[in-house]
Structures are given as structure tokens and as C-alpha cells.
Amino acid sequence: MTGVLDRLRRLRERRENRNRNGEQRTPARQPKRQHNLFEAAARYVAGCAEDDQDRIDEALGWVQPEALTFGINELACRAVIALARERDESPENVARSLLGLPPA
To answer: For the purposes of burial, counting CB atoms within 10 Å of the CB of 37, is it exposed (0-12), middle (13-18) or buried (19 or more)?
Structure first.
């Protein structure tokens, strides 16, 4: 969990440093409404899965890193539970399978 927080902080710092150092970036659109941590987690994970840095950066701007980490954790739990039900397996076996680990 600490590794995720560190990665999120580094990504946010990199984004802020690019803006401070004067590099040209496409200005991010200001959201018209407040995004919640679950929307940010979904956007962030989808961006990571598709290697889309713009979506990752956008999600990082919606909520604090700690909140995003909580949302990512909740998304992971829900995904494992859904897959376990679909496969008629235990959540632990599904999680281990997704990570490439042998069954417990």
C-alpha cells in the first residue's frame, strides 16, 4: 500500500514540477463538478491499464493521493469479489491468480 502512495505522490510532484518549470502542457480542463474518490480511482486504474498518462494525471488532480489510494483499494476488492463470484472461486484464489501466484 505504501508503494502505491509513493507512486501517486511522485506522479503528482512530476506534474507540478512540469508546470512550475514552465514546460508547455495542454491546460487541463477544469472540472465543472467535484469528482469523488471512486470516480478518480476508476479513471486512474483505467488509465494505468491502458497506459494513458493524460487520464492518470487527470485522476491525480481530482482527489488527494491518500483518498485515491483508498478508492483504488476499494475498486480492487470489488473486482476480486465480482470475479470470484463469476468463477465460483474464493476471493483469495482469484487475487493470487490475477497476480500470477500459485493457489494457496
So the answer is: buried
C-alpha cell at 72: 483504488
**What tens digit of pLDDT does each residue of 10-60 get?**
766 766 666 555 554 555 555 467 889 999 999 999 999 999 999 999 999
Report residue 42 as a C-alpha cell. Answer: 476508476
Q: What is the grid cell recorded at 84? A: 470470484
Q: Which residue has the higher pLDDT, 12 or 94?
A: 94
CB 59 within 8 A of CB 43: yes
pLDDT of residue 6: 72
* Ordered DSSP codes for 16-61: HHHHHTT---PPPPPPSSPPPHHHHHHHHHHHHHTT-HHHHHHHHH
Grid coordinates given for 73:
483499494
**Crossing angle for the helix pair 53-62 and 37-49, to the nearest 10 degrees:** 160
